[in-house]
Design brief:
By secondary structure, the chain is an alpha/beta fold. It has two domains: 6-155 and 319-350, Quinone Oxidoreductase, Chain A, domain 1; 160-295, NAD(P)-binding Rossmann-like Domain (Rossmann fold, 3-Layer(aba) Sandwich), CATH 3.40.50. Helix content is 30%, strand content 26%. The protein contains 13 helices and 18 strands. It has helices at 45-52, 55-60, 82-85, 106-109, 150-153, 156-166, 183-194, 207-216, 229-236, 252-261, 282-287, 303-314, 332-341, and strands at residues 6-12, 20-25, 33-42, 65-66, 70-78, 93-96, 99-100, 120-121, 133-137, 141-143, 176-179, 200-204, 220-223, 242-247, 262-270, 292-295, 323-328, 346-350. Strands 3, 5, 6, 9, 10, 17 and 18 form a seven-stranded mixed beta sheet that branches. A six-stranded parallel beta sheet has the order 13-12-11-14-15-16, with helices on both faces. Helix 6 (156-166) packs across helix 7.
Length: 352
C-alpha cells in the first residue's frame, strides 16, 4: 500500500507532565525495517512515568518523542531486504519486542540480549506506538495467531515481564507475595495460580486492584496503606515468611518490605522501578537471611515470547479480564488519568 504523508501521534513534546496529540510525518521503513499500522496500543507503567515526568523519566528521556511500546497491528510496508530475510509480508498481524538490541555485544552473543549494552527501547529512546503507524526493525516483529484479539495481542509484552518475574525461581508448591497489583502484578497472580503456587498473597493500595487479585487467584489480599504487610505475612506463614516475593510496584517501602517478608533462604524478584535511590539494611535483611535477589528487565528475546504464546494457547491464563478499559487515542487524557489512579486493570487505546 502507499503510505499517507501524515498521521496522528501522541507526542511527549517537552520535559514536563502531560503529552500532546499532534499531526506528524508517517515513518518510512529503512533497510531491515517494517512499518506497522497500529490497531491497539496499551498503557504501561513506564508510560505513566513518562506522562507524569517523574525522576526516572527526567533522567532518561529526550523530547520530543512519540511514546508507547505495547501494541498490535498490521504490517503495511517492508524495507529493503525484509522479504528475503523473514516471513513477514504486507498484511501480517504482529506485535513487537520493544527492546532493540545490537546483536554484537557480549550479552547479545551469549544469549542475554534482553540486557544488551547498546539496547534502545521503543517509545523511550526511539519513536513508539501511540500513533497511527510505527516503524520497527523486522527482527523485533512477533507474528500473532490470527484469532488472538488485538487488545490481548497488545499486552503480550508486559505478560512476558510477568512470566520472567514469576519463573525466576521455583513455582509449584511455593508460597508467594506479590507487592503491587498493577497489570503486571495481576498477570503474575494469574500465572502463579496456573502454575501451582500456594499460597498466593497480594498487597496494593487500590481496593479495585485487590479485588481483581482475589478473583485471579490470591488467597489473601490487603491494602498496604492500612495493613502492616510484613506482620501480615508472618502471621499467615507461622512466622516463617514466604518462599518468594515479587516486587512489582517500585515503591521504596515495598522493596524494604519484600526482603523482610521473604523467609530465610528465599528469593526476592524485583520488576518495579523506584523513582530514585533506595536505602536498605543489607546486612540484616539480605546477607544474613541468605536471600537470592533477581532484577528483571524486559523479557528474554524471544524465549519468553514463546512461553507467553504457550500459556495463552493453553487457556490456563486468560488475560481479557485484566483489560478493564478502552479509549480511542483521542481520549488519551482520560486514559492516562485513569491508568495513574489505580482504579482499573489494563487500559488500552484504540487507534485508527
Amino acid at each position: 500500500m502507499t503510505l499517507p504523508a501524515r498521521m496522528k501521534a501522541l507526542v511527549k513534546a517537552a520535559p514536563a507532565p502531560g503529552a500532546e496529540l499532534r499531526e506528524v510525518e508517517v515513518p518510512r521503513p529503512g533497510p531491515g525495517e517494517v512499518v506497522v499500522r497500529v490497531k491497539v496500543a496499551s498503557i504501561c507503567g513506564t508510560d505513566i512515568h513518562i506522562w507524569e515526568w517523574n525522576r526516572w523519566a527526567e533522567g532518561r528521556m529526550k523530547t520530543p518523542i512519540i511514546f508507547g511500546h505495547e501494541f498490535a497491528g498490521e504490517v503495511v510496508a517492508l524495507g529493503a531486504g525484509v522479504a528475503d530475510m523473514t516471513d513477514l509480508r504486507v498484511g501480517a498481524y504482529v506485535s513487537a519486542e520493544s527492546h532493540v538490541v545490537c546483536g554484537q555485544c557480549y550479552q547479545c552473543q551469549t544469549g542475554q540480549s534482553h540486557v544488551c549494552r547498546r539496547c534502545s527501547i521503543l517509545g523511550v529512546d526511539r519513536d513508539g506506538c501511540f500513533a497511527d503507524y510505527v516503524r520497527i526493525p523486522a527482527s523485533n516483529a512477533w507474528l500473532n495467531p490470527p484469532d488472538l484479539p488485538p487488545e490481548v495481542a497488545s499486552i503480550q509484552e508486559p505478560f512476558g515481564n510477568a512470566v520472567d518475574t514469576v519463573f525466576a525461581g521455583d513455582v509449584p508448591g511455593r508460597s508467594f507475595l506479590v507487592l503491587g497489583c498493577g497489570p503486571i502484578g495481576l498477570m503474575a497472580v494469574a500465572l502463579l495460580r496456573a502454575s501451582g503456587a500456594a499460597p498466593i498473597f497480594a498487597a496494593d493500595l487500590s481496593e479495585y486492584r485487590l479485588d481483581l487479585a482475589r478473583k485471579l487467584g490470591a488467597c489473601a489480599a490487603w491494602n498496604a496503606g492500612s495493613t502492616d504487610t510484613v506482620a501480615k505475612v508472618l502471621e499467615l506463614t507461622g512466622g516463617e515468611g514466604v518462599d518468594a516475593v515479587l516486587e512489582m510496584s517500585g515503591a521504596r517501602s515495598a522493596i524494604a518490605q519484600a526482603m523482610k517478608a521473604a523467609r530465610n533462604g528465599g528469593r526476592v524478584t524485583l520488576l518495579g522501578l523506584p523513582s530514585g535511590p533506595v536505602e536498605l539494611n543489607l546486612s540484616e535483611d539480605f546477607i544474613f537471611k541468605g536471600l537470592t535477589m533477581h532484577g528483571i528487565t524486559g523479557r528474554h528475546i524471544f524465549g519468553t515470547w514463546h512461553r507467553t504464546r504457550a500459556f495463552l494457547a493453553s487457556g490456563r491464563v486468560e488475560l481479557r479480564p485484566l483489560i478493564t478499559h478502552s479509549f480511542p487515542l483521542e481520549d488519551y487524557r482520560k486514559a492516562f488519568e485513569l491508568a495513574a489512579s489505580g482504579q482499573c486493570g489494563k487500559v488500552v487505546l484504540t487507534v485508527g
